[in-house]
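Same chain as my last thread, 212 residues:
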Amino acid sequence: MTENPSSPTADPTRVRSRIRFARSVLIGFVIAMFATVVIGTATADAVSAEAPASTGTISTEADRAIADLVGPSPADAIAHLPRGFAATMGYRPILEDGRPVNPRGGCSSPVPLPDRFEPLCRTHDFGYDLLRFDTRTGHAPGQWGRRSLDTWLIDSMHASCTNPVCSIAASMADAGLTANSWRQRWDTPVPESGGDLVATATLRTFDALARR
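reply #2:
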C-alpha cells in the first residue's frame, strides 16, 4: 500500500524530510535561474569557450589513475595508485561498487542531494585528491584531469536518476560544479574562504563581461 503523506499514519519525520528536500531543490533551482538571468549569457559563453578537453596527455602516475577512474576499468586506478599517495593524502582508496573512492568523502553542496549520489561523489573526491597529490609532489596536473572528473560525475549522476526531482538535482550539481571549476580555471582544487570564493567569482565574471 502506498503511503499517503497526508495520512495520519504517515511517519511525520519522513514527511518533513521529504518536504525539506523538495523545498531545497526548488530554492536551489530558483537561485540558479536568478543567477543565469542576472549574469546573462556572457559567463556561460566564457565557461563553454574556456573549458578544456576532457582528455589529455598522460604524463604522471596521477594522470594514469585519473584516466583509469573515468574509463571503462575504474578499479585499475588502485593498481596505478601513485607511489606515496597514502602517506601524502592520509588514506588509501577503497573499492565501493567496483569503483575506487575516498572513504571519508561525500557530496558537498549548498542544497541536499539524493543519497544515491554519495558513492559517486566519493569517487570524484578521490579523483580530486589525485590532482592535489600531483601538486603537492611538484607536478602540474593538466586541466583535462579536473574536466574529465567533473564530466564523469555529472554523467553518472544523471544515469543514476529514475525521477524528475533527481534529474533536477543532477542539473543543479552540474551548474555549480562547472561554475566552480571555471572559477578556479580548472586548476587543482584548493580550500578557500568565503571571501576568496566571492572575490574570484566576481573577478572571473567581470573578466568574462569585459571580453564580450
